[in-house]
Amino acid sequence: MTLESRHFDPHELWRVVQREQVTQIAIVGDAFAKPMLRALDEADARGEPYDLSSLVLVISSGVMWSESVKRELIERHPVIAYDSLGSSEGVGFANAITTTDSKGETAKFSVGSNTKVFTDDGREVKPGSGEIGYLAVGGNIPLGYYKDAAKTAETFRVVDGKRYSIPGDYATVEADGTITLLGRGSVSINSGGEKIFPEEVEEAVKQHPAVADAVVVGVPDERFGEAVTAVVSLRPGAIASPEDLGAAIESLARFKRPRRFVIVDEVVRGPNGKADYTWAKTAATQPG
């Protein structure tokens, strides 16, 4: 069953779950989960809470699903939160499962035997080395893109004699063999010679209690090449200055911290919940 609205409506989702006694739903990370939580709060405030008793499993894929948001959802109703890392170019790369009894860290995934992380020069990243590499998955993968030989060659490559699907995500490999996803290389920011992945910065910004959503981009800068800029929308009724937001991300390395915060009424995303980085760059370069 799919929802009828052209754009995501969390109240519609919960009405369908309640009416049809849905047991599992598929969402797109924080972009869907945060509005879902707000809708539950709004229904409670009206004295008309939704009946979620049938819901067992919530599956997410496509964008970051943060630990705090997973935990808040599970505390509202004890679902299994299944965070899947995959793409249309191959089967699932990895997954993370969070329940009432387990901790699901943000962007940390368990991987299967067909998933590898390689450096740009083709070496496999060793666990605990701290090296950054690109994700690759082998096994049952497509032959290529229809009538697009160049894109096929870029995405489906042979490494150490084995063919892999490589859609462009970068990660590190932890000492225990799990991976920490950093983000898509195509939207990475080069600031002062350092590669910065927007998803990591977005996750830090979104931890501020006043923030509803955030997208991070690089804008042209004479000194650094690109300056990290956060385009932020606030929760209804919330107030936060750029200084407040900046103080909340001091855990990030200094070179990753946004040099500017642009506060907008709403962060624009596609119907699939994914960030619209083209829109965000335009919003980030507006004067004021």
Description of the molecule:
This protein has 288 residues and is an alpha+beta fold. 23% of the residues lie in helices and 31% in strands. It contains 7 helices and 16 strands. Strands 1-2-3-4-5-11-10-7-6 form a 9-stranded mixed sheet, sandwiched between helices. It has a 3-stranded mixed sheet with strand order 14-15-16, sandwiched between helices. Helix 3 links the parallel strand 2 and strand 3 (80-87). Helix 1 (10-20) packs across helix 2. It is globular, with a radius of gyration of 20 Å. The relative contact order is 0.10. The model has no long low-confidence stretch (mean pLDDT 91).
Question: Which helices and strands appear, and what pairs or packs with what?
Answer:
Layout: H1 10-20, E1 24-27, H2 29-45, E2 57-60, H3 67-76, E3 80-87, E4 90-98, E5 108-111, E6 115-118, E7 133-137, H4 149-155, E8 156-159, E9 162-165, E10 169-173, E11 179-184, E12 189-191, E13 194-196, H5 198-205, E14 211-221, E15 225-234, H6 242-247, E16 260-264, H7 277-284
Parallel strand pairs: 1-2, 2-3, 15-16
Antiparallel strand pairs: 3-4, 4-5, 5-11, 6-7, 7-10, 8-9, 10-11, 12-13, 14-15
Helix pairs in contact: 1-2, 2-3
